[in-house]
């Protein structure tokens, strides 16, 4: 059975797509114009593009990564990581203590995420309202927007049996009487294979790549892939253009540049690259908020070996989570942690474990008996959890993220909870992924060992797949760069619509929070802009489509 | 790999050092294919990092080593420039006597060290309290292990294969 590839078919039907690797400056327009220019095509940019296009506005979307589609997705990490992830999935904080997975291709992280769709927790929204003067984002006010996006992206509770990796998380919770939830996923006709993180090969995942972006393109929007926004040109309270630079097949910069001009500009490059672009462009930031308070949900891992087969590579990667410990001590109390599982694939497990040689080979030989639980730490609420900071370093940027004492307290508690859960589910041995502990044979042994274990950067494996903050929203300009609609406090025709506006982390996987808030904010923006807009067909005067057929994977 | 030629270079370097004359060539990759850098260095580290995973029999072992060397090269080639520069700096240090002294407290080229000595060196970086040495250990470990396990040829060890789906490219 042939899989329908909406990207391939759309390009063949004449979508306006300009690929930076193929762009020739001399015979192409030097500038493009539209009603709205959107930088970034992930959860924020994708939703905004569809809503604004439907309102009759002309839209240009810009993505630094390549345009890839299901025919390129071969379910192998060696292909997916370099093609679809920031820095080939090897992005790290400045001290290399935290590895960060972030998407970088058309569709952004939605192309590679694990489909977990959770509405913003009410505690988080309440905290933003009281501490950051965020308005209009209560659970009640957001409900219709979440409903709209859940419907648009076919988000519904996973109706099938969880795979055994998730099943053990559920079994442990059941044994211990802990809270757990069956996850809602943005899938339609899912084959339950387990390769969401490498790009869905059957287009079941309702990522931006197969939903909002094709809809926007079919309605006349223009997509620039392998173009990076390098500079926002601005004067007084207005942006008057954004420079984008072409990138080659390997995403190295090419000399060709284009000026994009619009009535309104939306930044949606994610919580690292949006603040970086704003800082690089010297945007007004009197309170020095840009790039500060960057949150990661820093995550620790616990492996367990079961006698029975787990086959954690197979089946929906996430279908169960436990919020038993997320809010236990109140929002601003001890850092809580959410329990989930990751998919178990060869490179991911080989690298996010410990040691080398025989001990590592033995661990890998148990690949199919291996069950892994992860604890995502809710950062940014506790006074001593200020997150990280993104700064420019000449060539690019760096992200410093100090792992502070409250984080390590949460990590220790999380290692204990994970071990307790895994033993309760029937694990034979548990291996906290931190140097010096080794395999533990019972919950009693684990309890004592974990209370006593040393935890430290570069010794304890810490990972992140959720980047948030760095350009906070709210009505108090001493604490916020943009208002509660994402509108800049300083530039009248600039908005930010991605996870960088979150004043803290979420305590939940972020995609649905971004979808819902951006649906609300982009709809409001469309109401402001649309009455004067022209039909989308008249957008760029010169058709920028350089290639009738899609680019293929290198 | 032209191991003999390399040994001569290394020994020549040792002799020169004893004589107080530096004839040492920091570029150790004097194997036949000169434009594939660091292959000797990785072929030394690989049996240590991948002990228990590499086949014991000579022919399949050599195939796995060569496959992984190619995969390492591919991995390095897709790293962003800043990371590749950092890694190259580390690899250059390991191929250079003063660098070795700095990182290992000892100028003996890695080629002249036994696998057990190399393992204990990696282990000491792993256990070190210095972030620089931890980073060196983690960088090499991740590069070699990730490259090895990225190859479908090595997945039989895991009893793993990616699913074959009708209509999907394999």
Q: Can you give keywords for this protein?
A:
heterodimer; A: 554 residues; alpha/beta; eight-stranded mixed sheet; six-stranded antiparallel sheet; 13 helices; disordered C terminus; B: 170 residues; mainly alpha; 7 helices; 0% strand; disordered N terminus
Question: How far is it from the N-terminal to the C-terminal residue of chain A, by CA?
Answer: 25 Å
Q: Oligomerization state of this entry?
A: heterodimer
Q: Helix fraction of chain A?
A: 25-40%
Give the low-confidence spans of chain B.
1-32
Q: Termini of chain B, distance in Å?
A: 32 Å
Q: Which pair of protein chains has the largest interface, and what are the residue counts? A: A-B, 47 and 46 residues
Task: Estimate the helix proportion of chain B, in percent.
Answer: 55-70%
Gyration radius of chain A, in Å: 23 Å
Classify the secondary structure makeup of chain B into a structural class. Answer: mainly alpha
Tell me the Rg of chain B in angstroms: 17 Å
H/I helix tally of chain A? 13
Helices and strands of chain B, in N-to-C order?
A: HHHHHHH
Low-confidence stretches of chain A: 533-554
The secondary-structure class of chain A comes to alpha/beta
Describe it.
The complex is a heterodimer of chains A (554) and B (170). Chain A contains 13 helices and 24 strands. Chain A has helices at 6-12, 43-54, 77-84, 122-132, 139-152, 164-176, 212-218, 270-280, 346-351, 357-365, 405-424, 443-452, 511-529; strands spanning 16-19, 31-39, 59-63, 91-92, 98-100, 116-117, 155-157, 181-182, 184-186, 222-225, 227-235, 238-247, 253-267, 294-295, 299-305, 320-325, 337-340, 370-377, 389-392, 397-400, 429-432, 462-464, 468-469, 494-496. In chain A, the strands form six sheets. In chain A, strands 1, 2, 3, 10, 11, 12, 13 and 24 form an eight-stranded mixed beta sheet that branches. A six-stranded antiparallel beta sheet of chain A has the order 8-16-17-18-15-21, with helices on one face. In chain A, a hairpin with a 4-residue loop joins strand 19 (389-392) and strand 20 (397-400). In chain A, helix 2 runs parallel beside helix 13, helix 5 (139-152) packs across helix 13 and helix 6 (164-176) crosses helix 11. The longest helix of chain A is centred in the C-terminal third of the chain and has 20 residues, at 405-424. Chain A is globular and about 65 Å long. The two termini of chain B are 32 Å apart. Chain B has helices spanning 3-18, 39-49, 58-78, 81-94, 97-104, 115-127, 131-149. Chain B is mostly helical and 170 residues long. In chain B, helix 2 packs across helix 6 and helix 6 packs across helix 7. At the A-B interface, helix 3, helix 9 and helix 10 of A face helix 3, helix 4, helix 6 and helix 7 of B.
């Amino acid at each position: 059975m042939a899989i329908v590839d909406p990207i391939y078919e759309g390009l063949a039907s004449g979508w306006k797509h300009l690929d930076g690797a193929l762009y020739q400056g001399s015979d192409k327009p030097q500038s493009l114009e539209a009603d709205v220019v959107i930088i970034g095509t992930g959860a924020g940019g994708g939703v905004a593009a569809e809503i604004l296009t439907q309102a009759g506005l002309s839209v240009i979307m810009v993505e630094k990564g390549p345009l890839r589609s299901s025919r390129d997705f071969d379910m192998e990490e060696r292909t997916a990581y370099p093609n679809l992830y920031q820095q080939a999935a090897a992005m790290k904080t400045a001290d290399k203590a935290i590895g960060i997975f972030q998407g970088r291709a058309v569709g952004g992280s939605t192309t590679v995420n694990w489909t977990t769709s959770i509405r913003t927790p009410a505690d988080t929204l309440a905290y933003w309202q009281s501490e950051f003067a965020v308005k209009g984002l209560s659970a009640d006010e957001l409900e219709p927007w979440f409903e709209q996006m859940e419907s648009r992206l076919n988000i519904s509770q996973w109706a099938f049996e969880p795979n055994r990796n998730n099943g053990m998380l559920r079994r442990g919770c059941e044994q211990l009487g802990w809270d757990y939830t069956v996850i809602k996923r943005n899938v339609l006709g899912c084959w339950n294979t387990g390769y969401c993180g490498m790009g869905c090969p059957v287009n079941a995942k309702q990522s931006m790549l197969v939903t909002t972006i094709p809809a926007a393109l079919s309605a006349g929007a223009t997509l620039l892939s392998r173009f990076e926004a390098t500079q926002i040109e601005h004067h007084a309270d207005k942006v008057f253009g954004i420079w984008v630079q072409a990138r080659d097949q390997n995403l190295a910069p090419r000399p060709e540049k284009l000026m994009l001009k619009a009535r309104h500009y939306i930044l949606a490059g994610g919580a690292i690259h949006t603040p970086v672009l704003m800082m690089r462009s010297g945007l007004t930031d009197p309170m020095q908020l840009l790039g500060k308070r960057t949150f990661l949900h820093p995550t620790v891992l616990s492996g367990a070996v079961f006698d029975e087969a787990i086959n954690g590579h197979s089946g929906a990667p996430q279908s169960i989570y436990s919020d038993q410990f997320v809010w236990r001590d109140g929002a601003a109390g001890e850092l809580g942690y959410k329990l989930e599982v990751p998919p178990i694939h060869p490179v991911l497990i080989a690298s996010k474990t410990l040691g080398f040689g025989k001990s590592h080979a033995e661990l890998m030989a148990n690949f199919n008996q291996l069950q892994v639980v992860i604890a995502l730490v809710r950062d940014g609420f506790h006074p001593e959890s200020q997150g990280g900071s993104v700064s420019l370093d000449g060539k690019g940027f760096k992200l410093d993220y100090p792992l502070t004492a409250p984080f390590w307290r949460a990590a220790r508690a999380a290692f204990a909870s994970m071990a307790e859960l895994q033993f309760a589910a029937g694990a034979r041995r548990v291996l906290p992924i931190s140097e010096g502990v080794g395999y533990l044979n019972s919950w009693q042994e684990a309890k004592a060992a974990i209370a006593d274990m040393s935890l430290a950067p570069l010794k304890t494996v810490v990972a992140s797949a959720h980047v948030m903050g760095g350009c906070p929203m709210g009505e108090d300009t001493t604490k916020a760069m943009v208002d509660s609609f994402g509108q800049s406090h300083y530039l009248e025709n600039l908005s930010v619509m991605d996870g960088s506006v979150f004043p803290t982390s979420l305590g939940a996987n972020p995609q649905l929070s971004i979808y819902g808030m951006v649906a609300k904010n982009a709809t409001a923006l469309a109401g402001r802009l649309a009455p004067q807009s022209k039909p989308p067909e008249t957008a760029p005067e010169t058709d920028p489509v350089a290639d009738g057929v899609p680019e293929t994977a290198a | 790999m032209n191991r003999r030629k390399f040994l001569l270079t290394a020994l020549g370097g040792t002799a020169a050092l004893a004589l107080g004359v530096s004839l040492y060539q920091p570029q150790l990759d004097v194997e036949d294919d000169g434009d594939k850098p660091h292959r000797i260095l990785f072929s030394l580290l690989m049996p240590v990092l991948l002990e228990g995973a590499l086949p014991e029999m000579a022919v399949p072992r050599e195939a796995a080593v060569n496959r992984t060397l190619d995969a390492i090269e591919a991995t390095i080639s897709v790293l962003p420039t800043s990371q590749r520069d950092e890694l190259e700096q580390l690899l250059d240090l390991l191929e250079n006597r003063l660098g070795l002294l700095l990182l290992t407290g000892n100028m003996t080229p890695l080629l002249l060290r036994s696998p057990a000595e190399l393992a204990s060196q990696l282990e000491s970086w792993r256990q070190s309290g210095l972030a620089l040495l931890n980073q060196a250990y983690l960088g090499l470990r991740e590069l070699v292990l990730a490259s090895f396990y990225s190859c479908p040829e090595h997945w039989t060890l895991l009893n793993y294969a990616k699913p074959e789906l009708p209509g999907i490219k394999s």
